[in-house]
Amino acid sequence: MDLSGVDKEFIEARRRSLKRYLQILCRHPTIYDTDIIKFFLTFQGTSCADNMKATYKNVLDEFSSESQSSLNSNDNIEKHGEDSDGIQMFRISQTHISFLHQQFNQIRGYLKSINEKNFKNANDFANIEKTLQTIGSDSTSIDRWATGPNDYWPTIQVGLSNLPVEIDAISERINEQYKRDDEVINDHFDLLIELLQGYTDLCKRFDDALQIEQKAIQKANNQQKRSSTATDTSSKVKINKIKKSKKE
After folding, report:
1. Taking Cα atoms as reference points, which of 170, 52, 189, 47 lies closest to residue 110?
2. Contact 113/120 with Cβ under 8 angstroms?
3. How many domains does the chain have?
4. Is residue 247 part of a domain?
5. How does pLDDT run across 197-224, given as a tens digit for each residue?
6. Residue numbers of the domain that contains 114
């Protein structure tokens, strides 16, 4: 892939994103030791994504480890009733994670806004430095008609020509602070937000799987009721036949 025409800042942003993504995966207590992660981290050829899809296309995810038919068993129906407290705890956790994700996103926005102002301040000081250099290097001859009997302007001009050094130091300090803060926001704060986003997505996937399971359990319950009703009806018919035969 030719990246010669791609903006350096874009490449750096993608590098940071990939770094954060790998950190999230490698810190996960279960995912870090899976075969697919080891494959991704050790793959040496080209078309890594295509090779991963081909190699692991039949691997089930964490919500597909049980066959759909197992949901129709009485054990699963009883277990579902026992897990109602766990489901309630999941709902509370899901809401809390979503809340934290939203709040930290707001904080990130505030920090970004503050840091952008620092970047603008650094540029403003750099422009002040250039302006002072222009004034200090001005060689225009000053006539007595403009200055009167005093000769203060040459002294002022010398003083102004010395200021750019100090202004440049201020601009550099602000710019360095901007870079440090930007790195903290991108490499640390964004990592926290992406972790929360990952848990938010995971909760949604679990919620979707839970709804499918609940529908399957409801269907199994209905089938069980119909089967029980049919059995009762059949038993009554047999009893009536026996009674009728005895009377005859």
Report:
1. 189
2. no
3. 2
4. no
5. 888 888 888 888 888 887 887 888 888 7
6. 97-222
